[in-house]
Amino acid sequence: MSGGRSHAVELTQQDVSTAPGQTTIAGALVSCKDIRGVAVTTMRMANLGDVGRAGVLNRVPVIVIDPDIITRLPNKLQLFFYQHECAHHVLGHWFQTSMTMETDADCWAIRHGRDNGIFSREDVMSFAPFLANSGGSPFGHLPGPQRAKQLLRCFDDE
What CA–CA distance (Å, rounded) separates 37 from 97? Predict the structure, then answer.
């Protein structure tokens, strides 16, 4: 997916959905369409090494979720991580990359959740302890405490 890393992973389940692009995260039916309006397929993959990743496989936009990691998180944080991966598709990051891709995806996910009644400000504040130990990533994820503050700024911005 991202970063050019290859993983020896086992595909455990591809979601069976009622409509293209739909899946269930934290008990909620969610869906994602990319910048072109194409439904994004969600797959579950054990041993991914991360909560989720977004990418394109054989020209099909995909979100890959590690069920062992995501299910250990609170429901609202699960939805945030799904929406973050969706944001990469919505924002067209596969067609034009930028240095701010990760913070852009974070802000899109938070604002989408805020504007659709999924996240309250308190929900976003509750993410901080789960992000606290993250050191960030070479791909542009901010270190945990900075990322938590950035998520609140995104929530508060119009």
Answer: 19
